[in-house]
Input
Amino acid sequence: MNNADPIVTADLYLAAALMTCGHRPRQLIPDDRRTLFSFGPSTRLHELVNQYFSGTLQVDALTYAEALRSAKSAAMNVSGRGAR
Output
């Protein structure tokens, strides 16, 4: 993965972690039964992703919980599952 590449993920937990670190998705892409979150590109984002998957990323728990709720809500709205 090149550091000039954007980060695209369907992982809500990763998306919330990146959001907790101050990054906002540039685009939300509906994809079948899920939503893809597109971030970046940025060298810092790739460092955060590596920390996330190695288990060394540290974030504030309350901020992470808020970001997770926000990511889930955004995913539901983009996919149309949030409308009743």
The first strand starts at residue 7 and ends at 9.
